[in-house]
Amino acid sequence: MLDGHVHTPYCPHGSADAMASYCEEAIKQGITQLSFTEHAPLPEGFKDPTPAQDSAMRWDDVPTYFATIKQLKNDYAKSLRILAGLEVDYIVGFEKETTAILNELGPYLEDSLLSVHFLQTTNGYHCLDYSADGFWSLAEKIGGVDALYHLYYKTVQLSIEASLGSFKPKRIGHMTLCRKYQLRYPASHSFETEWMHILKEVRAQGLELDYNGAGIIKPDCQETYPPLFIAKTAKEMGIPLIYGSDAHTVAGLKSGYDALLP
Ligand SMILES: [Zn+2]
Ligand SMILES: [Zn+2]
Fold first, then answer.
1. Which of 34, 173, 178, 207 could serve as a FRET partner for 159 with CA atoms 20 to 30 Å apart?
2. Ligand 1 centroid vs 20 CA: distance in angstroms?
3. Ligand 1 centre and the CA of 246: distance in Å?
4. Which tens digits make up the pLDDT trace of 177-221?
5. Which domains are present in the chain?
6. By the 8 A CB rule, do 179 and 221 touch?
7. Which of 80, 93, 71 lies closest to 30, judged by CA?
8. Which residues pair with 6 in a beta bridge?
9. Distance CA 224, CA 235 (A)
C-alpha cells in the first residue's frame, strides 16, 4: 500500500503535525511507501490570490523540508520507503517561472505531482478550491458553474500539454478538483468530452493520475478525485492510478482509501 500525496507542517494552510508523526501513523496503517509532496513555492511574480496568501511552502523552508525528508529516510529505512516530492502548481502564463523552479528543485525530487488550483480569468487569477464561497463567487464572475468546470478542465489539459522542462511531474494531481463542491454547486452534465480528452492525453504521454481520497471527507464532495466513473475508464485505458490521501494532518492519512476501485 502506498500513499503518493502527503503534506507537511511546511504547508501554511495545513497543520503543525510533525513529518515523523506521519511516518509513524503510516507504518501503523500498513503503508509501505509514502511520498511527501508539499506545495512547491509559487512561481516568481505570481501573487497568491487566496485571502490568507497561504497556498504554498515558503522558499525559506525548502532546505529544511528536504533535509527533514533525508533524515526520516534514515530513521525509517527498515519500515517505510519515503520519497521526496512536491506538488507543483500549473499556472497559465507562468510556465517559464515554473520550469525555473523545477530545474532548481528537480534534482531533489523522487516523486512529484502537477496540480491546478489557480485559474486565469480576464480579471486575473483565482484559487478554485479555497472555499465554497470563493468557488461560487468565481463561478458567478465567469458565467456559472459549468463555465468554471470548463475552465478548470481546460487548464488541466493545458498543464498536460505544457513544456516545463525535464523535471516536469509525471503525475496529474486531483484531475477533478472542480467537483469539490459538487453537491452544493452541481454542474449540468458530467463533462465527459473534457475528462475523456484529459485521460487520452495522460495515456498518450505515459503519465499517471493521482487517485486522491481527500474529496471523500469533504461534505460537499463525498467522492474521490477522480470519481468512480472516471477512475473505471482510466483503469480500462491502462492509466496508472496512484492513491494519494492528500493528508494535511496525520489523521488525514488513508482518507478515502476504502472508496477506491478494487
Ligand atoms: Zn494543501
Ligand atoms: Zn492539491
1. 34
2. 18
3. 8
4. 999 999 999 999 999 999 999 999 999 999 999 999 999 999 999
5. 2-259 (3.20.20.140)
6. yes
7. 80
8. 36, 247
9. 14
CA distance 94 to 248: 26
Position 59 confidence tier, pLDDT thresholds 50, 70, 90: very high
Question: In the numeric block, which cell numbers belong to residue 230?
Answer: 472516471
* Kind and range of the H or E run holding 14: none
Grid cell locating 98: 515554473
Name the residue with cell 525548502: 62
Amino acid occupying residue 191: F
Output the CA 6–ligand 2 centroid distance in Å.
10
Written as one letter, the residue type at 64 is T
Per the structure block, which three cell numbers stand in for 195? 475528462
> Which listed ligand is nearest to 171 at the C-alpha?
2
Per-residue CA distances from 94 to 15, 97, 103, 123 (Å): 28, 5, 14, 16
Residues 116-167 pLDDT 10s: 999 999 999 999 999 999 999 999 999 999 999 999 999 999 999 999 999 9
